[in-house]
From TrEMBL:
Alphabetized UniProt keyword annotations: ATP-binding, Membrane, Nucleotide-binding, Transmembrane, Transmembrane helix
UniProt binding sites for ATP: G196, A197, T198, Q199, S200, G201, K202, S203
Residues making up the signal peptide according to the UniProt record: none
Pfam families tied to this protein: FtsK_SpoIIIE
Protein name: DNA translocase FtsK
Amino acid sequence: MSDQLYTMLAVLAALAAGLWAWRRFHYPSFWLVIGFPIIAITIRATWRKVALGCGLTKKRQRFWFTTVPGLVASTGVVRVRRKWQRIAVDTKPFMWLPLPARHGWRVTLHTLEGQIPADYAEVAERLAHSWGVHAVRVSSDKPGRVRLAATVHDPLVKVDELPPSTELLKVTVGRLETGTPWVIDFRTVPHWLNAGATQSGKSNLANALIVGLAPQPVALIGFDLKGGVEFTPYAPRLSALATSRAECGGLLEDLVALMTDRMGVCRMAGARNIWQLPPTMRPVPIVVLVDELAELYLMADKSEKDEIAKTSTALLRVAQLGRAFGIYLFCCGQRIGSDLGPGVTALRAQCSGRICHRVNDPETATMTLGDLDPAALDSARTIAAETPGVAIVAGQDGQWYRARSFYVTEQTAERAARTYAHLAPPWSEVVTAQPIETPDQQTA
Ligand SMILES: Nc1ncnc2c1ncn2[C@@H]1O[C@H](COP(=O)(O)OP(=O)(O)OP(=O)(O)O)[C@@H](O)[C@H]1O
Ligand SMILES: [Mg+2]
């Protein structure tokens, strides 16, 4: 008897060790074969309780059968006196079978009458706690259907490097929480706002862009209002660098003049934008990186008013018309609030790409992410200081995502800037509108 017990214990111990090793050394297959089926069954089995707890059920009249008259019904609503009785029952939204996803699982629900996806988004945090997962995201691709995507662990704690993008003006800068690459594509979303508190990862993202754009046939311009400490090391790859408001003003004037030139070229060639021009006539695209945007707008005394107004108008013109003429903005700042003046608000309206790193005050998140889903703002406020580089990203598709940039040190960006220094067209050449040859496969 005791021999049998020992054998059983040994088998159990071996099984436990095997499972542990499987989970440790090949988590994806362990998750698919063991972890996910157990979770899927649990989710289905407990859905009534969870939906009830999160307020997602509706009362419906149903015939209820009981073999013990007088018993309190399971819903606790009505005392049953007859065997068949019509009573109000809490109905849960219909749930399809959960499906495994890269970092968790997803499931589709049928909404009940009067429900909208926002009702589910509102209780996403409650659902996440009920299911013991990191986060639940709500989306809806069809009326009457809601898709819940649960991530079991935060996929952004550690992000692995991805292969760089080879397309013009497209840079893979990090990873989205869905596991897909986080791509900044200036041709789809031409202007970006990148906000965040100090040490939240703004410059790291700018470094990632420099590394990604350096090998491409584009001109890079730096507006470094931190007195040049951020971008001066990248000067070899920059076609121009401005480190004060006066210098930025000068460069912006050049850019506006350049834009007018390009407008003329496009008009003559009958093109709506530089991408419709024949490759031999196409001027070089320009990406303008701005660090500490607020410095452009801060006024110490009245004498600066005119200068600020001029710079702000020029920047706004670049933002409004730049897209068609190959001039793209990437503006970083700690605060991008309307208190900086109407120029900032107008510029913000032109920047459809929004990135909000960790912020100190809720207003900055609201200013940056605008009137996106309130859940995006909540998510921005909960970014931890221990995870710099994590941000909420909103792009052209109207969706928002949590994402994390790859860690790109200043040294890496400096090295890229030196390696590709020969690709930096001199500013004098750029402003004289020298057309460059762009490979045909890079045209849209
Ligand atoms: N994606 C990332 N992964 C890991 N660490 C990061 C990441 N991004 C930033 N960091 C770390 O956070 C530090 C601060 O980042 P960064 O200099 O980009 O902040 P910042 O927002 O530009 O701050 P400031 O406003 O002071 O310029 C970096 O030195 C780096 O160590
Ligand atoms: Mg910085």
